[in-house]
Write a structure and sequence with these properties.
Elements (H helix, E strand, L loop, with lengths): L3 H7 L5 E2 L3 H7 L3 E6 L11 H12 L3 E6 L3 H4 L14 H15 L14 E4 L1 H4 L4 H7 L6 H5 L2 H11 L8 H21 L1 E7 L3 H15 L4 E5 L12 E2 L2 E2 L9 H9 L3 H11 L4 H13 L5 H15 L1 H15 L4 H6 L2 H7 L5 E5 L7 E2 H8 L6 H9 L3 E3 L2 E2 L6 E2 L9 E6 L2 E8 L2
Parallel strand pairs: 2-3, 2-5, 3-4, 5-6, 9-15
Antiparallel strand pairs: 1-6, 7-8, 10-13, 11-12, 11-14, 14-15
The chain binds one RNA strand through helix 16 and helix 20.
RNA sequence: GGGGGGAUUCCAGAGCGGCCAAAUGGGGCAGACUGUAAAUCUGUUGGUUUUCACCUUCGGAGGUUCGAAUCCUCCUCCCCCCA
């Protein structure tokens, strides 16, 4: 059995740990929970760090609890300086919960008979029937405002108001830490949960929980946080220009998901592989060494992408993502394109801008420049299109096209339906409409 | 209140009344190189156009002139100095 704290430490996933936590973990099978916002019907990779903490925890023989913040998600955590949230209907909430459970089960063991199998709970179940009066009487009494005010997340919001900056902090948000703290207390009482995991921004909220357990139950509970994940270029982890990378294949195609990991730069890949895989210390050291020998093979990125894409989307989708990548970045030729079925073609180019042109236009052939700038608004003007073609920047169906006066005819259509246009490094697809 | 300087194409910043669609740098976009990276080098960077050429653009409105981003008048907005 591995030592959870040591495991997190070498993986670079340990930010802060409450004294005594390691002893607690060594002493008995410990139940630990992590909160997840159920605001959508899918997790995105920003959630993944937390989930991996649970996974490493489970691998270390302890029992993970994933807590969906059905109740807390309605309030909005002030430490994320997020806007106030919208209320989810219970129906939406349950739907999201089921979808998220499915995704979580790819990472965690929910179904075996093991004593440390994971469970999923939703704080809506115990918070929704808790009356305001009961809450302030039973819970609020035990925590002083002075204590709550001392939290960084609260201080920051109040200070920013005094500077005339933000719009202050609502009472609802102020209460957030009590609600989250109560979750911990509740799980402590009902599941014997003694440890809460979270991002480093959660420390303040977690300690409110341990404080409640101490004051109200005379119990001892612990906290472990991990650093917030950053990218070495300073960008936000898990975000692309197009938004979040979701685990749901409908929201983010497996190809895009795969590409996200492939595109990690070397520095990040090294950190990520420690965080997002369960490979051993030795195996990872070996991978890093191999990568350093031949960085252009990008072994780390490929391994990382393979592990996660396979885990989340399955082997078949992973293979397809590779195939798609080769077509887009490798030596994909016109021949390989022609071999693709419509379904595959659409899947590969699903994330690429689409344009439509009527088929009849091709009867006489369409001048390239018109195709780019008139029939579609791919380029702003014919002058720009001309520059592109003259600059050798245009490919049609993966073949360089440099004839400014050229006509595009029916013969060039892939499967009689598509044109794959490559403008520099950017792809676009023109779909031919039957008319 | 007095005096002075400025507003230029995405940004910064040149620009003798004709040779200015406007130097140069940055950024953008392409090409080469490369690891779907970084750096570097090359080309390009208002529109129509094969070329010639034409059209729209230099804070706004007028004017002088064969001709104005460049001269004059008024207006708007910025900056600096002295009180």
């Amino acid at each position: 059995m591995t030592n959870f704290i040591q495991e997190l430490t070498w993986r670079g996933m340990l930010h802060n740990v409450m004294p005594g936590t390691e002893d607690q973990l060594n002493q008995e099978l410990t139940t630990a929970y992590l909160g997840i916002d159920p605001t959508a019907d899918s997790l995105h990779i920003g959630h993944l760090v937390g989930i991996m903490m649970l996974k490493h925890l489970q691998n270390a023989g302890h029992k993970p609890v994933a807590l969906l913040g059905g109740a807390t998600g309605m309030i909005g955590d002030p430490s994320g300086k997020s806007q106030e949230r919208n209320l989810l209907s219970e129906q939406e909430l349950r739907y999201n919960q089921e979808a998220i459970r499915k995704q979580l089960s790819k990472f965690l063991d929910f179904d075996s008979d093991a004593p440390n199998k994971a469970i999923l709970v939703n704080n809506y179940d115990w918070m929704s029937t808790f009356s305001f009066l009961d809450f302030i009487r039973d819970i609020g009494k035990h925590i002083t405002v002075n204590y709550m005010m001392a939290k960084d997340s609260v201080k920051k919001r109040i200070a920013s108001e005094e500077e005339g900056g933000a719009e202050g902090m609502s009472f609802t948000e102020f209460t957030y830490q009590l609600v989250q703290g109560y979750d911990f207390l509740h799980l402590y009482k009902t599941h014997g949960c003694k440890l809460q995991l979270g991002g480093s921004d959660q420390w303040g909220n977690i300690t409110t929980g341990t404080e409640m357990i101490r004051r109200m139950e005379g119990g001892k509970a612990y906290a472990v946080t991990c650093p917030l994940l950053t990218k070495s270029d300073g960008g936000k982890f898990g975000k692309t220009e197009k938004g979040n990378i979701w685990l749901d294949a409908e929201k983010t195609s497996p190809y895009t998901f795969y590409q996200f990991w492939i595109n990690a730069d070397d520095k990040d890949a090294e950190r990520f592989i420690k965080i997002f895989t369960t490979f051993t210390h030795e195996h990872i050291a070996e991978l890093i060494a191999k990568h350093a020998e031949a960085p252009h093979f990008r072994l780390l990125q490929k391994t990382l992408a393979q592990e996660l894409t396979t885990l989340v989307h399955g082997e078949e989708r992973f293979n397809f993502a590779i195939e798609a990548s080769q077509i887009l970045f490798g030596k994909g030729t016109k021949e390989t394109l022609e071999k693709l079925s419509d379904a595959d073609f659409n899947a590969i180019f699903a994330d690429v801008p689409q344009y439509q042109v009527e088929k009849s236009k091709f009867d006489a052939g369409v001048p390239v420049l018109d195709l780019l700038a008139v029939e579609t608004d791919m380029l702003k003007s014919k002058a720009e299109a001309r520059r592109l073609v003259q600059g050798n920047g245009l490919s049609i169906n993966q073949e360089k096209y440099s004839n400014v006066e050229g006509l595009i005819t029916k013969d060039q259509l892939l499967n009689g339906k598509y044109l794959l246009i490559k403008n520099g490094k950017k792809y676009s697809v023109i779909t031919i409409l039957e008319s």
